[in-house]
Amino acid sequence: MDRRTLRHHGPRDKLGAEERAELLSVANSAEFGHLPPSQIGPRLADQQRYIASESTFYRVLKAEKQLAHRRSERPARARSKPRAVCAYAPNQLYSCDITYLPTTVRGQYFYLYLFLDVFSRKIVGWQVYAQESGVLVGEVLKDWCAREAIQPNQATLHSDNGGPMKGATTLATFQALGVTPSLSRPGVSNDNPYSESLFKTLKYRPTYPLGAFDTLLAARTRVGALVRWYHHGHRHSATRFVTPAQRHAKLDQDIPDRRAALYEAARQRHPLRWKGPTRNWQRVDAVHLNPDRIDHQDVAAQRRSQQRTAA
């Protein structure tokens, strides 16, 4: 046995240069250029031609970087992250999405349209329809803007990249109302996290029906009850456990202050029971959507520079 480490062992029956060139010529021809090797082999066999095995076709094409997308396709487009947006008060930033509601008819669904104020987490607009379309998105959008008295260029509405959200009718409604649209990247649900989280909160509620809805009225009635509970009964963890209705009404400053005073009084009565500061009840002043990634090293360097300048 040859034990020399620098000895190169190659298959003795591998394709020669001319055979390899013929394989590539056939694979890239007008007849076979759009087909994968699994389709090329049988067609060559019908023509009584054998050039190489299917696995050899795959191996050679992979080595030549010609294996992927062997058909007519639009070239891949670079997708950039949606613009970072921050809200400091209600009626500045909204999130919208549509979710399926099962019906008693197999394969048919109702569609729940939800518009969420990202800052307060209040559902400012919702409706259940039997179909999904951009026209219906526009109807809910108009109703919400009228009730909240949204002025042109006041608000940004973020949604996924689905057809109803980016259709011509919806975009025309955006333009007419002066609402700035923002779209997620295709297939990236994390770009629209607030609506996704809201749907999970509603659908995992113990009172959410486990069965299907038999009528549109039944679906609307149940969703209406869930929305009322969410507005007035659900204390949201991301807003220091105030309800969406309280935060939307700008009552979320007094409530945390009273809680902080209560905890501080409890610590004063029994200081030995507290090893550190009381629970953080400080109001959340800003909510971010798709924030840019922060380089913590750059932030630390900037702080050191500021400290040296101050000294």
What layout of secondary structure does this protein have?
Blueprint: H1 17-27, H2 37-46, H3 54-63, E1 85-87, E2 93-102, E3 109-117, E4 123-129, H4 134-148, E5 156-159, H5 163-166, H6 168-177, E6 180-183, H7 193-203, H8 216-232, H9 244-248, H10 254-269, E7 287-289, H11 296-310
Parallel strand pairs: 2-5, 5-6
Antiparallel strand pairs: 1-7, 2-3, 3-4
Helix pairs in contact: 2-3, 4-6
How would you describe the overall organization of this protein?
The radius of gyration is 30 Å and the shape is elongated. It has eleven helices and seven strands. The strands form two sheets. Strands 4-3-2-5-6 form a five-stranded mixed β-sheet, with helices on both faces. Helix 4 runs parallel beside helix 6. Among the domains are: 47 residues; 155 residues, Nucleotidyltransferase, domain 5 (2-Layer Sandwich). The protein has 311 residues and is of the alpha/beta class.
Which class best fits the helix and strand makeup? Answer: alpha/beta
Number of helical segments? 11
Instruction: Write the element-wise H/E pattern from the N-terminal end onward.
Output: HHHEEEEHEHHEHHHHEH
Beta-strand content estimate: 5-15%
- Estimate the global geometry from the Cα principal axes: elongated
The first-level CATH class name of the domain at 85-239: Alpha Beta
Judging by the overall fold, what is the CATH architecture of the domain at 85-239? 2-Layer Sandwich
How many β-strands, per DSSP?
7
Uncertain segments are: none
CATH level 3 topology of the domain at 85-239:
Nucleotidyltransferase, domain 5
CATH homologous superfamily assignment of the domain at 85-239: Ribonuclease H-like superfamily/Ribonuclease H
- The radius of gyration is 30 Å
Mean pLDDT, nearest integer? 85
Question: Which sheet architecture does the biggest sheet show?
Answer: 5 strands, mixed
